[in-house]
Write a structure and sequence with these properties.
This protein is an alpha+beta fold. It contains 10 helices and 15 strands.
Protein backbone atom coordinates (compact mmCIF):
# COMPACT_ATOMS: atom_id res chain seq x y z
CA UNK A 1 0.00 0.00 0.00
CA UNK A 2 1.42 3.36 -1.08
CA UNK A 3 2.30 5.81 1.68
CA UNK A 4 0.18 8.92 1.98
CA UNK A 5 1.74 12.34 1.51
CA UNK A 6 3.19 13.50 4.84
CA UNK A 7 1.61 16.95 4.57
CA UNK A 8 -1.74 15.29 3.89
CA UNK A 9 -1.26 13.00 6.90
CA UNK A 10 -0.80 15.98 9.22
CA UNK A 11 -3.39 18.11 7.40
CA UNK A 12 -1.05 21.08 6.82
CA UNK A 13 0.15 23.09 3.84
CA UNK A 14 3.56 22.43 2.31
CA UNK A 15 4.86 25.75 3.67
CA UNK A 16 3.76 24.93 7.24
CA UNK A 17 6.00 26.19 10.03
CA UNK A 18 7.47 23.96 12.73
CA UNK A 19 4.86 25.24 15.19
CA UNK A 20 2.08 24.33 12.73
CA UNK A 21 3.55 20.84 12.36
CA UNK A 22 3.77 20.39 16.11
CA UNK A 23 0.17 21.51 16.71
CA UNK A 24 -1.11 19.17 14.02
CA UNK A 25 0.94 16.26 15.36
CA UNK A 26 -0.18 16.78 18.95
CA UNK A 27 -3.81 16.88 17.86
CA UNK A 28 -3.47 13.61 15.93
CA UNK A 29 -1.43 11.95 18.69
CA UNK A 30 -4.11 12.67 21.25
CA UNK A 31 -6.82 11.50 18.85
CA UNK A 32 -5.27 8.20 17.68
CA UNK A 33 -3.28 7.03 20.69
CA UNK A 34 -4.07 3.30 21.18
CA UNK A 35 -4.69 3.71 24.90
CA UNK A 36 -7.54 6.02 24.04
CA UNK A 37 -8.80 3.72 21.29
CA UNK A 38 -8.56 0.16 22.66
CA UNK A 39 -11.35 -1.11 20.38
CA UNK A 40 -9.97 0.47 17.19
CA UNK A 41 -7.07 -1.58 15.71
CA UNK A 42 -6.50 1.05 13.02
CA UNK A 43 -5.69 3.77 15.60
CA UNK A 44 -2.15 2.51 16.18
CA UNK A 45 -1.39 2.61 12.44
CA UNK A 46 -2.72 6.16 12.16
CA UNK A 47 -0.68 7.15 15.19
CA UNK A 48 2.54 5.71 13.74
CA UNK A 49 1.81 7.36 10.40
CA UNK A 50 1.42 10.76 12.03
CA UNK A 51 4.61 10.28 14.05
CA UNK A 52 6.60 9.31 10.98
CA UNK A 53 5.33 12.34 9.07
CA UNK A 54 6.11 14.67 11.97
CA UNK A 55 9.65 13.35 12.53
CA UNK A 56 10.45 13.67 8.85
CA UNK A 57 9.08 17.18 8.30
CA UNK A 58 10.64 18.64 11.47
CA UNK A 59 14.12 17.49 10.38
CA UNK A 60 15.44 20.10 7.96
CA UNK A 61 17.55 17.72 5.91
CA UNK A 62 14.84 15.08 5.71
CA UNK A 63 12.20 17.65 4.82
CA UNK A 64 14.35 19.06 2.01
CA UNK A 65 14.93 15.56 0.64
CA UNK A 66 11.23 14.71 0.93
CA UNK A 67 10.14 17.93 -0.80
CA UNK A 68 12.49 17.14 -3.70
CA UNK A 69 12.23 13.35 -4.07
CA UNK A 70 9.16 12.37 -2.07
CA UNK A 71 9.22 9.17 0.01
CA UNK A 72 12.15 7.85 -2.02
CA UNK A 73 14.37 10.55 -0.59
CA UNK A 74 13.77 9.53 3.03
CA UNK A 75 12.90 5.83 2.92
CA UNK A 76 16.20 4.84 4.56
CA UNK A 77 15.79 7.22 7.47
CA UNK A 78 12.05 7.55 7.93
CA UNK A 79 11.62 4.40 10.03
CA UNK A 80 10.26 4.41 13.52
CA UNK A 81 13.73 3.96 15.00
CA UNK A 82 12.73 1.22 17.44
CA UNK A 83 11.70 1.70 21.02
CA UNK A 84 8.25 2.89 22.14
CA UNK A 85 6.61 5.02 19.41
CA UNK A 86 4.11 6.48 21.87
CA UNK A 87 6.46 7.71 24.56
CA UNK A 88 7.93 10.64 22.63
CA UNK A 89 4.57 12.01 21.58
CA UNK A 90 3.08 12.14 25.07
CA UNK A 91 6.37 13.01 26.70
CA UNK A 92 6.54 16.16 24.55
CA UNK A 93 2.90 16.98 25.26
CA UNK A 94 3.23 16.59 29.04
CA UNK A 95 6.53 18.48 29.01
CA UNK A 96 4.83 21.46 27.38
CA UNK A 97 1.92 21.36 29.82
CA UNK A 98 3.80 20.82 33.08
CA UNK A 99 7.11 22.50 32.30
CA UNK A 100 9.12 19.30 32.44
CA UNK A 101 12.20 21.06 31.12
CA UNK A 102 12.93 22.57 34.55
CA UNK A 103 14.08 25.94 33.21
CA UNK A 104 15.39 24.60 29.97
CA UNK A 105 14.82 26.83 26.94
CA UNK A 106 13.74 25.82 23.48
CA UNK A 107 17.36 25.44 22.39
CA UNK A 108 18.43 23.45 25.45
CA UNK A 109 19.59 26.56 27.33
CA UNK A 110 19.30 27.04 31.09
CA UNK A 111 19.08 30.16 33.23
CA UNK A 112 22.05 30.62 35.56
CA UNK A 113 21.69 30.34 39.33
CA UNK A 114 21.08 33.34 41.58
CA UNK A 115 23.92 34.24 43.96
CA UNK A 116 24.10 36.01 47.34
CA UNK A 117 26.75 38.37 48.70
CA UNK A 118 26.79 39.55 52.33
CA UNK A 119 27.85 43.20 52.61
CA UNK A 120 28.70 44.93 55.89
CA UNK A 121 28.20 48.69 56.04
CA UNK A 122 28.24 51.30 58.81
CA UNK A 123 25.14 52.87 60.32
CA UNK A 124 26.10 56.20 58.75
CA UNK A 125 26.37 54.61 55.30
CA UNK A 126 22.97 52.98 55.76
CA UNK A 127 21.39 56.26 56.82
CA UNK A 128 22.84 58.44 54.06
CA UNK A 129 23.34 55.91 51.28
CA UNK A 130 26.62 55.21 49.57
CA UNK A 131 28.24 53.51 46.63
CA UNK A 132 30.80 50.79 47.08
CA UNK A 133 32.65 48.22 45.02
CA UNK A 134 32.62 44.53 45.78
CA UNK A 135 34.87 41.80 44.46
CA UNK A 136 33.23 38.43 44.03
CA UNK A 137 34.28 35.02 42.70
CA UNK A 138 32.18 34.26 39.66
CA UNK A 139 31.89 31.96 36.69
CA UNK A 140 32.02 33.56 33.28
CA UNK A 141 31.47 32.23 29.80
CA UNK A 142 34.61 30.54 28.53
CA UNK A 143 36.31 32.75 25.96
CA UNK A 144 37.92 29.80 24.18
CA UNK A 145 34.75 27.84 23.35
CA UNK A 146 32.31 30.75 23.80
CA UNK A 147 30.24 28.73 26.25
CA UNK A 148 29.73 25.60 24.13
CA UNK A 149 32.12 23.48 26.21
CA UNK A 150 33.49 21.91 23.02
CA UNK A 151 37.06 22.13 21.77
CA UNK A 152 37.42 24.85 19.10
CA UNK A 153 36.68 23.38 15.70
CA UNK A 154 34.31 20.76 17.15
CA UNK A 155 30.69 20.84 18.27
CA UNK A 156 28.60 19.12 20.91
CA UNK A 157 26.56 16.22 19.55
CA UNK A 158 23.04 15.09 20.27
CA UNK A 159 22.86 12.95 23.38
CA UNK A 160 22.47 9.30 22.34
CA UNK A 161 20.54 8.46 25.49
CA UNK A 162 17.72 11.02 25.28
CA UNK A 163 18.13 11.91 21.59
CA UNK A 164 18.38 15.58 22.40
CA UNK A 165 15.26 15.87 24.55
CA UNK A 166 17.15 16.32 27.83
CA UNK A 167 14.66 13.97 29.45
CA UNK A 168 14.30 10.21 29.52
CA UNK A 169 10.78 8.85 29.58
CA UNK A 170 9.06 5.80 31.04
CA UNK A 171 5.71 4.81 29.60
CA UNK A 172 3.14 3.48 32.05
CA UNK A 173 -0.14 2.92 30.29
CA UNK A 174 -1.57 6.24 29.17
CA UNK A 175 0.87 8.27 31.27
CA UNK A 176 4.41 9.24 30.36
CA UNK A 177 6.77 9.80 33.28
CA UNK A 178 10.01 11.65 32.67
CA UNK A 179 13.20 12.61 34.45
CA UNK A 180 16.38 14.47 33.61
CA UNK A 181 18.71 12.53 31.35
CA UNK A 182 21.59 11.13 33.46
CA UNK A 183 24.07 11.35 30.58
CA UNK A 184 23.63 14.94 29.38
CA UNK A 185 22.05 16.26 32.62
CA UNK A 186 19.19 17.80 30.71
CA UNK A 187 21.12 19.73 28.07
CA UNK A 188 20.29 17.35 25.23
CA UNK A 189 23.93 17.46 24.11
CA UNK A 190 27.15 15.66 25.00
CA UNK A 191 30.69 16.84 24.32
CA UNK A 192 33.04 14.21 22.89
CA UNK A 193 35.95 16.70 22.64
CA UNK A 194 35.90 19.02 25.68
CA UNK A 195 37.40 22.50 25.57
CA UNK A 196 40.93 22.48 27.12
CA UNK A 197 40.26 25.76 28.92
CA UNK A 198 37.00 24.97 30.72
CA UNK A 199 37.12 21.13 30.42
CA UNK A 200 33.65 21.04 28.90
CA UNK A 201 31.89 23.20 31.49
CA UNK A 202 31.48 26.15 29.14
CA UNK A 203 32.38 28.44 32.06
CA UNK A 204 35.56 29.43 33.87
CA UNK A 205 36.12 30.89 37.32
CA UNK A 206 37.03 34.55 37.48
CA UNK A 207 36.99 37.32 40.06
CA UNK A 208 34.97 40.33 39.06
CA UNK A 209 34.45 43.75 40.61
CA UNK A 210 30.99 45.29 40.72
CA UNK A 211 29.74 48.71 41.74
CA UNK A 212 26.83 48.61 44.20
CA UNK A 213 24.68 51.65 44.97
CA UNK A 214 23.31 51.51 48.52
CA UNK A 215 20.13 53.61 48.82
CA UNK A 216 19.66 55.81 51.88
CA UNK A 217 17.69 54.15 54.67
CA UNK A 218 18.52 50.49 54.07
CA UNK A 219 18.22 48.26 57.10
CA UNK A 220 19.68 45.01 58.33
CA UNK A 221 18.66 42.14 56.05
CA UNK A 222 17.57 44.31 53.11
CA UNK A 223 18.52 42.91 49.68
CA UNK A 224 19.73 44.76 46.62
CA UNK A 225 19.29 42.89 43.33
CA UNK A 226 21.91 43.22 40.62
CA UNK A 227 20.14 41.83 37.57
CA UNK A 228 22.15 39.45 35.42
CA UNK A 229 25.19 39.40 37.72
CA UNK A 230 24.64 35.85 38.98
CA UNK A 231 25.95 32.69 37.37
CA UNK A 232 25.86 32.68 33.57
CA UNK A 233 23.35 30.39 31.91
CA UNK A 234 24.20 27.22 30.05
CA UNK A 235 24.09 27.09 26.26
CA UNK A 236 23.74 30.89 26.11
CA UNK A 237 20.84 30.92 28.54
CA UNK A 238 20.23 34.11 30.59
CA UNK A 239 22.37 34.78 33.64
CA UNK A 240 20.95 34.64 37.15
CA UNK A 241 20.84 37.60 39.52
CA UNK A 242 23.15 38.64 42.37
CA UNK A 243 21.49 39.58 45.67
CA UNK A 244 23.53 41.83 47.96
CA UNK A 245 22.31 41.33 51.54
CA UNK A 246 22.91 44.27 53.89
CA UNK A 247 24.40 43.73 57.37
CA UNK A 248 24.92 46.70 59.72
CA UNK A 249 28.12 46.88 61.73
CA UNK A 250 27.70 47.51 65.50
CA UNK A 251 27.83 51.24 66.29
CA UNK A 252 29.74 52.77 69.19
CA UNK A 253 26.89 55.09 70.20
CA UNK A 254 23.58 54.15 68.59
CA UNK A 255 21.41 51.06 68.35
CA UNK A 256 18.93 50.98 65.47
CA UNK A 257 15.32 49.86 65.83
CA UNK A 258 13.72 50.15 62.40
CA UNK A 259 13.76 53.93 61.79
CA UNK A 260 14.40 54.91 65.42
CA UNK A 261 17.78 55.23 67.08
CA UNK A 262 18.51 54.58 70.75
CA UNK A 263 21.46 55.68 72.86
CA UNK A 264 22.43 55.67 76.51
CA UNK A 265 23.04 59.17 77.85
CA UNK A 266 25.37 59.36 80.89
CA UNK A 267 24.29 62.18 83.24
CA UNK A 268 26.33 63.22 86.23
CA UNK A 269 24.86 62.89 89.71
CA UNK A 270 24.78 66.65 90.28
CA UNK A 271 23.23 67.54 86.87
CA UNK A 272 20.54 64.91 87.39
CA UNK A 273 19.78 66.37 90.85
CA UNK A 274 20.04 70.09 90.07
CA UNK A 275 19.17 70.11 86.35
CA UNK A 276 21.30 71.42 83.51
CA UNK A 277 22.04 71.14 79.84
CA UNK A 278 24.08 68.45 78.10
CA UNK A 279 25.26 67.95 74.54
CA UNK A 280 24.62 64.70 72.71
CA UNK A 281 25.64 63.41 69.26
CA UNK A 282 23.20 62.74 66.41
CA UNK A 283 23.78 61.51 62.88
CA UNK A 284 23.42 65.14 61.73
CA UNK A 285 25.80 66.65 64.27
CA UNK A 286 25.36 67.68 67.89
CA UNK A 287 22.20 68.59 69.78
CA UNK A 288 21.54 69.94 73.28
CA UNK A 289 19.08 68.54 75.79
CA UNK A 290 17.82 70.30 78.90
CA UNK A 291 17.85 68.00 81.89
CA UNK A 292 15.17 68.91 84.46
CA UNK A 293 16.10 68.84 88.13
CA UNK A 294 15.55 65.54 89.94
CA UNK A 295 15.83 63.42 86.74
CA UNK A 296 15.98 59.71 87.47
CA UNK A 297 17.80 56.83 85.74
CA UNK A 298 15.72 55.38 82.92
CA UNK A 299 14.13 58.67 81.89
CA UNK A 300 13.84 58.81 78.07
CA UNK A 301 14.21 61.99 76.05
CA UNK A 302 12.85 61.86 72.50
CA UNK A 303 14.32 63.99 69.73
CA UNK A 304 11.79 64.05 66.91
CA UNK A 305 13.09 63.42 63.41
CA UNK A 306 16.66 62.64 64.49
CA UNK A 307 16.47 58.97 63.57
CA UNK A 308 16.72 57.39 60.09
CA UNK A 309 14.36 57.71 57.16
CA UNK A 310 13.83 54.20 55.81
CA UNK A 311 13.83 53.37 52.13
CA UNK A 312 10.04 53.16 52.04
CA UNK A 313 9.23 55.60 54.86
CA UNK A 314 7.44 58.92 54.61
CA UNK A 315 9.68 60.59 57.17
CA UNK A 316 12.58 59.95 59.57
CA UNK A 317 12.29 58.18 62.88
CA UNK A 318 13.27 59.58 66.30
CA UNK A 319 16.34 59.53 68.51
CA UNK A 320 15.55 58.20 71.99
CA UNK A 321 18.09 59.08 74.69
CA UNK A 322 17.97 56.89 77.80
CA UNK A 323 19.27 58.61 80.93
CA UNK A 324 21.91 56.73 82.88
CA UNK A 325 22.87 58.43 86.16
CA UNK A 326 26.62 58.10 86.56
CA UNK A 327 27.96 57.46 90.05
CA UNK A 328 31.13 59.53 90.61
CA UNK A 329 34.38 57.55 90.93
CA UNK A 330 37.94 58.30 92.13
CA UNK A 331 36.63 60.72 94.78
CA UNK A 332 38.89 63.06 96.69
CA UNK A 333 38.66 63.30 100.48
CA UNK A 334 36.81 66.62 100.19
CA UNK A 335 34.25 65.07 97.79
CA UNK A 336 33.71 62.17 100.14
CA UNK A 337 33.25 64.57 103.05
CA UNK A 338 30.60 66.53 101.14
CA UNK A 339 28.75 63.37 100.13
CA UNK A 340 28.71 62.14 103.74
CA UNK A 341 27.28 65.47 104.79
CA UNK A 342 24.62 65.21 102.05
CA UNK A 343 23.73 61.68 103.10
CA UNK A 344 23.29 62.76 106.70
CA UNK A 345 20.88 65.49 105.60
CA UNK A 346 18.96 63.03 103.45
CA UNK A 347 18.67 60.55 106.33
CA UNK A 348 17.18 63.25 108.50
CA UNK A 349 14.29 63.68 106.07
CA UNK A 350 14.43 60.52 103.94
CA UNK A 351 10.73 60.52 103.02
CA UNK A 352 11.12 63.90 101.37
CA UNK A 353 14.44 63.37 99.63
CA UNK A 354 14.26 59.67 98.73
CA UNK A 355 10.57 58.82 98.05
CA UNK A 356 11.36 55.77 95.96
CA UNK A 357 13.56 54.29 98.66
CA UNK A 358 10.78 54.78 101.25
CA UNK A 359 8.20 53.19 98.94
CA UNK A 360 10.50 50.24 98.27
CA UNK A 361 11.13 49.59 101.96
CA UNK A 362 7.39 49.65 102.67
CA UNK A 363 6.88 47.02 99.97
CA UNK A 364 9.63 44.88 101.49
CA UNK A 365 8.03 45.07 104.94
CA UNK A 366 4.63 44.15 103.50
CA UNK A 367 6.19 41.18 101.70
CA UNK A 368 7.75 39.70 104.81
CA UNK A 369 4.72 40.49 106.93
CA UNK A 370 2.44 38.67 104.54
Amino acid sequence: MAKRDYYEVLGVNRDASEDDLKKAYRRLAMKHHPDRNPDNPKAEELFKEAKEAYETLTDRQKRAAYDQYGHAGVDQSAGMGGGNPFGDAFGDIFSDIFGGGGGRGRNGSYRGADLQYNLEITLEEAARGTETRIRIPAQEECGTCHGSGAKPGTDPITCPTCHGHGQVRMQQGFFSLQQTCPKCHGSGKVIPNPCPECHGAGRVKRNKTLSVRIPAGVDNGDRIRLSGEGEPGLNHGPSGDLYVVIHLKPHAVFQRDHNDLHCEMPVSFTVAALGGEIEIPTLDGHAKIKIPAETQTGKVFRLRGKGIQGVRSQGPGDLLCHVMIETPVNLTERQKELLRELEAINQADGERHNPKAKSFMEKVKAFFAG
